[in-house]
Amino acid sequence: MTLHKDGTVAQHGTLYYLCGKMGAGKSTLSRQLAQDHQAVVLSEDDWLAAHYPGQINTFDDYIEKSRLIKPFIKAHVQSLLQLGLNVVMDFPANTRRQRAWFVELSETVQAEHQLYYLDVSDTQCLAQLAKRRIEQPARAQFDNEAVFYQVSQYFEAPEASENLTLAHTDSINES
Question: Does residue 175 lie in a domain region?
Fold first, then answer.
């Protein structure tokens, strides 16, 4: 906890983060959570596009650039949480290692955290990716079946042993 100059205790914000395969609806749910919890949304896609325009052409490029922005994101999110702001991170928490990063990020500043797990079938994810390719043609290079299966091979569903504060859902409300 942090003390204000007047001696009152400042409450930290809550970190909301998401787990689900490509096309599961993480970005849509991020926007819903931001409204529901009066939170700031940080999107990995937006940060990567702003910092590395035209430089992410392969899955390996994505992994490298994602790794490079993490220290800046971490410091920024921790500052927001310490100010009492809720934060929704539209970043994947699809592996044990990724989820551990989110937990450490929030617990270091004594903030609460909650993982939303979108347990969506491959068929539904692929249908959503097909819809996204039509709505956002610029994403067609990555939002396809081949990349879906390449990325999905690394997916690890959350397990009880991770001691996460977990909200589980198998659907979202499309808006």
Answer: no
Q: Are 115 and 106 in contact (CB under 8 A)?
A: no
The closest of 68, 74, 71 to 15, measured between CA atoms, is: 74
**C-alpha to C-alpha distance for 161 and 74, rounded to whole angstroms:** 24
Strands (E), 20-85: 39-43
Containing domain of residue 76, as a range? 2-169
pLDDT in tens, 85-125: 999 999 999 999 999 999 999 999 999 999 999 999 999 99
Question: Which residue's entry shows tokens 């934060």?
Answer: 87
DSSP string, 114-135: EEEEE---HHHHHHHHHHHHHH
* Residue 174 resides in a domain: no
3 state SS of 89: strand
CA distance 35 to 153: 32
Q: Would you say residue 131 lies in a domain?
A: yes
CATH of the domain at 141: 3.40.50.300
Structural domains in the chain (count): 1
Closest CA to 118 of 27, 46, 31: 27
Q: Is 81 part of any domain?
A: yes
- Tell me the residue ranges of DSSP E strands in 25-156: 39-43, 86-92, 112-118
